[in-house]
Fold this sequence. Notes:
Layout: H1 8-18, H2 32-35, H3 47-58, H4 82-88, H5 91-94, H6 106-123, E1 127-128, H7 135-144, E2 155-158, H8 164-174, E3 180-183, H9 194-198, E4 205-212, H10 222-231, E5 235-240, E6 258-262, E7 278-282, E8 294-299, E9 305-311, H11 316-319, H12 332-369, E10 375-377, E11 385-389, H13 394-403, E12 410-411, E13 422-426, H14 433-447
Helix pairs in contact: 4-12, 6-12, 7-8, 12-14
Amino acid sequence: MVFSPHTPEDRAIMLQTIGVDRIEELFEGIPASYRFPELRLPPPVAEADIFRELLELSLRNWSTVATPTFLGAGSYNHYVPAVVHQVLWRGEFYTAYTPYQPEVSQGTLQSIYEFQSLVCLLTGMDVANASMYDGATALAEGALLCVSPPRGRTAIVVAGTVHPYYRGVLRTYTRGLPVEVREVPIPDSLRTTPQDLERFVDESTACVVVQYPNFYGRIEDLAALAETAHAVGARFVVSTYPIALGLLRPPGELGADVVTGEGQCLGIPQSFGGPGLGLLAARMELVRHLPGRLIGATVDREGKRGFVMVLQTREQHIRREKATSNICTNQGLMALAATVYLSALGKQGLQKIAKLCYHKAHYLAQRIAELPGWSLVGEGPFFNEFVVRCPQDPRAINEFLLQRGIIGGLAVGELVPEQDDLMLLCATELTTKEHIDRLVEALRDLTE
């Protein structure tokens, strides 16, 4: 591939356009003593020595592989089958980028097409894209595609039971736009009802946003909430936890117009918080409002099946200055991981994992509720997370648990200050009975 740098004439025109004579003038705002600092690097060492040092550093970390963990809140410790990494490590996938040339990108295009198809099956929606970075940004994009200033639909109503980080990203996305974000207070039940929404929705509401299961683990009544949104002509946006859909009815069957989610649980390691995978699916009527790109199946002149990018209606490389999205790459490798994971598990496998998560979380809740001074908080069914009220500061409890070799739950007060006596606990298929019993014994020792 030929690299064509700027010519001296190109540089001169660019400098003239921005009003400077020399490139060095662009750096005058940086003190001269800091422009070219001396890099005091250690002397070179043998590769084996570097490996040993990095290994020693890594052993300081708490690993969910070797440590019982009860921390969820959006990033979950699920088993990743070996086949997922085996496929990801293939060079043709590992180094693939956006498939602009379909004639040489059929494998990549097909993997994205299969991913979109699986997301639609999982969520019960008509169409899905494959370009979102994580659950929070997917939620923000899903809410914004419902906004329509010409129709007077400029208000987004978001339930207080949606993840605090997701609500924060939504506020960031809408800053500077003619959009109002109305946040519904967190109910004592930790479960949003139609009555909670009624005073926040009106004829200006573009959409109502909820989470399923919600941040506190409770399972919202989607059908009732969707009816409240649709009664004022608003759309209904649901952020979901894909593993839960192995057990729960898909949002598309309960009135959702847009479904988003975090796909990290689908074959992607936690990896210190990233990368994640955003899921975004919608009704067909919204297909031209979706950000990113959509892959479709077709046939060539010889009647052979093939795959192409069929829609990129909002992207910068298509719309230029009229673009309304900047999703200009895609999470192809992460989407492939989710595709392999779901394909390997199948319908029955996903259902089995969801049931394991559900039953282990309920056993954990039962054991903790038996402890003096501890109590479950919230009403209604929950999936694999739940909230407890602690007899001591949850942060101090987590420090104590770390000393016992256990990663505790989320101290909710770190995200919601007014709930500083609550802890959010999680169980997955990797949580064993021995892990739970060990946690309970540690908590008993702490409070006795």
